[in-house]
Amino acid sequence: MLSQSLQQRLQLKQKLSPLQIQTIKLLELPTLELDQRVRKELEENPVLETKEAEEETDNNKELSLSDYSSQDDSIPSYKLYVNNQSRDIKKEFPTFSVRESFHQHLEAQLGFRTLTDKERDIAIFVIGSLDDDGYLRRDFETLSDDMAFRQGLKAGPGEIEQALSVIQEFDPPGVGARNLQECLLIQLRNKEKKPSVDTARAILEKHFGEFTKKHYDKIIARLGISEEELKDAIEEILRLNPKPGGNVDDSYTDRAQQVVPDFILEMKDGEPLLTLPRFSVPDLRINKRYADMLLKAAGQSSRESKEAATFVKQKLDSAKWFIEALKQRQHTLLNTMNAILEFQKEYFAEGNET
Q1: CA angle in degrees (0–180, nearest 5) for 223-225-228
Q2: Between residues 303 and 82, which one has the greater pLDDT?
Q3: Is the CA virtual torsion 166, 169, 175, 178 positive or negative?
Q4: Among the four 21, 43, 138, 232, which has the fewest Cβ within 10 Å?
Q5: What does the pLDDT look like over 273-310, one tens digit per residue?
């Protein structure tokens, strides 16, 4: 038989408010991603707008939503405006270029060589035929036929070999090799002359097969060297790069990117001064036109007006949370970095001497 009963239970649950969720998401973003996030919010929320550094005097007054919100949702005006941009001249930070691919890196080095137009065209074609590891996997006859068919350029195997010999002197060492043995030997030719390097070259030139099969006893007997000399030579070989093309990162776009720090630390009068590079994030404030729309719709009873008021109210709340989250992000980052600065003050002043 079923029985009914009443039970009273006390539970305590902790839930994050929209503002806290917004703050956590913004806190983990670096400066460049934060700038993109702010611009995305400006596109999606029409209530948000930017405030230019120089405005007319009648527009300088900050807008407060406390006049437009209900009595139980009063918001202090200082929470509805955030200044993320200094009125001073924006600082210029260094840029780093990621515009060169592996093949572009090699082609750029052709400019330092004295070549005829034909020799340069042949070299560029050979560079384009290298794989991602920096190897030339095709024979000269095939390259000659392909060059004549695609570019109408007649070049014999001897001319192609001559162009390849030029490319094999480029950086990174070992590029343009036709097999692993040649790749390693090219790199050894660029090393400083010493007994271990000479032994390594002799191993790769005369006993490459035994070396790959680890028949070290045969190598010692045929070269007449000691085990210690063999060990030094093998260490030289192991330092070489079997894939020289992988040294050049080809994953970036042809675009120079600016390095924007998350913090700026300057020494003034012997004391460290910490600031945030806030110039990249535009000034944000509430759009007065939408706030006026909410005030106007509040006094009307039609369904359309109420729906419009609800929509604008949601956007206003979202804008308010976003602005406040930016303020809290700045406050949290500065407090955290100031604590680190206070704890490691000598390190930031003198550097690491170890």
Answers
A1: 140
A2: 303
A3: positive
A4: 43
A5: 887 765 556 677 887 777 777 667 666 667 777 777 77
